[in-house]
Specification:
It contains no helices and five strands. It is mainly β. A three-stranded antiparallel beta sheet has the order 1-2-3, with no helix packed on it. It has a two-stranded antiparallel ribbon with strand order 4-5.
Length: 66
């Protein structure tokens, strides 16, 4: 994450997700708490908002999709 601008951060019990200035989303932490978004990373463009519960993240994209 070094050198990338962070716009917003959300947290679950044991993981974090950040929306970067370029509209992408980055997550890290415990895998069972949403810490790995690598399987859907190619879909996480133009992220407008991230919401979290105890164990997962949801990303709202610019086109309104979830």
């Amino acid at each position: 994450m070094c050198g990338k601008g962070v716009h917003h951060v959300q947290a679950t019990q044991h993981a974090f997700a950040a929306i970067l200035i370029d509209g992408s989303k980055l997550s890290w932490g415990d895998l069972d708490s949403g810490g790995d978004s690598s399987k859907v990373q190619d879909q996480l463009k133009s992220v407008q908002e991230v919401q979290a519960n105890d164990f997962a993240f949801a990303a709202i994209l610019a086109d309104g999709s979830l």
